[in-house]
Amino acid sequence: MADDFPRTRTVIVARLLVAVVIAVAALFGGAGVEVLPIIILGLIVAGLTGVYLLWDRYGGVPRLLLQVQFAVDIVFVTLVVYFSGGLASPFKLLYFLPVFVASARLGFRAGTAYACGAVAGYLVLSFADPGGWLYLEESGAYAEVATLVVSLLLVAALVGHLSRAAGETGRALGRTRNELMTTRARIASIVDSIDSGLVLVDSSGEVVYLNRAGARILGVSEDAVRGREYRIAFADVPAFCERLAAALESGQAEARAEFFIRRRAGVGTPVGLSTTVLGDGETGEQGVIAIFQDLTEARRIQERLRHEDRLAALGEFAAGLAHEIRNPLNAIKGSVDLLREDLETSGDQSKLLDLVTRESDRLAKLVQDVLHFGRMESGERAAVSLDPLLREVEAVARGHHSHREEIELAVEADGDVDVTGNADQLKRAFLNLTINALESIDGRGRVRLTAVRRSEFASRGLSGGSDFDIAVIVEDTGCGISSEKREEIFHPFDTSKKGGTGLGLSIVDKIVQSHGGRITVASEPGRGSRFVVYLKE
Description:
It is a single chain. This protein is α+β, with helices and mostly antiparallel strands. The chain has 4 domains: 4-172; 197-294, Beta-Lactamase (2-Layer Sandwich); 299-374, Helix Hairpins; 382-535, Heat Shock Protein 90, CATH 3.30.565. Helix content is 57%, strand content 15%. It is built from 17 helices and 12 strands. The strands form 3 sheets. It has a 5-stranded antiparallel sheet with strand order 2-1-5-4-3. A 5-stranded mixed sheet has the order 7-9-10-12-11, covered by helices on one side. A hairpin with a 5-residue loop joins strand 11 (518-523) and strand 12. The chain is rod-shaped, with a radius of gyration of 47 Å. Residues 1-6 have low confidence and may be disordered.
């Protein structure tokens, strides 16, 4: 009813205005016009107008209301014609109004029915008046009456046909509009669902469209940039504007370009971009479509592959290196120990022998780590209970020289938490993480090892292991790791510890990967670190 109400109300108000005009015209009519009955009819129409408006507002059946109104209109016009001279009435042309509107609003059949009703009312009531017969004796009266009757029927037929054609056209347009809207919504949904950003800029430089991914990558709002000049819309991304400007000005597409988007926090996001120029052959107007992607994950994968290549090369190198260094190194260390026993050394000589012994031990540890790293294999797999394994790690760590009384070392693990893996390798991985945590603490501090199930991930703030069943957390209150350093800590031979080999975390990473797991790190300088190893049961 909401759509029909304004148009129905317009018909009601228009009827009232016509009634007023008829009443005024009757006052100045000829001798054959009975003024009082026509004025009374006008007042009746005014009263009915109020009824129509209430019906239209609260009745809820606009079509029925229109049908009743047009029927009443035919009766009203017939009475006006009767009281104003019958066949000779100047108001007989008013029959065309309800017939025309009824045909337009209700269709061909309804219009024809009202036209027939108008003809019947006009003839019956007019001929009932004796003056009507006298009027027919005048020259051309029959032709006038016949013309009126035929015209009413023709108007009903013509307007009804045009109304039906217009209705069918309107319905067809409505269907087409709905299909276009559906297609547009589907296309928008598809474009918004892709991971790549897409922006369309017209020849004047106005941003026509920006999808959701593009807004996220560029750090802007979709609604805020649409309709704005691209230099203003993307003012915080000058490198992006430069490429759009180059495409617009030169009219040439750019197959591939890379640039960085600098965030306010200072972190740069690598972005790859391709542009396509849209041209209008008739007007020469051009626009540009830019498709771009956040390359952060691609760079991470690329770096990971490079890292894997380095590890593979290092593994091959380590096997040969061990045989070349280990035996001479053992001979050197043994010879120094014999010299220490056979010679009485003092002063600088003793210090030099101590230095040789210390450096030989350090070099032996390096060779041992390299050997272990290079020859690491998957090993036999079995069910491993994490509770006893982590407590063994705790016991070994307590005997390490990096553990001190002022450092609290604790294990929290449910006895039923099991994983499938190689116990020795997992023990080595968790021991390396624990020793690193102990060495990061200067003074008092805390190191905690915790094993949790997936059901506890959310409560523990773990969001990186949705595909895993178990997580082992090694957290400390040590010195922490800077954001720049966190990207490199798993690279071999990368270390900031004095006397470190830089292989500890590389070994951990390789063990975790060989178990189909994942390791993440969260750290902040001065506030400690949190390493999380995700594994499957």
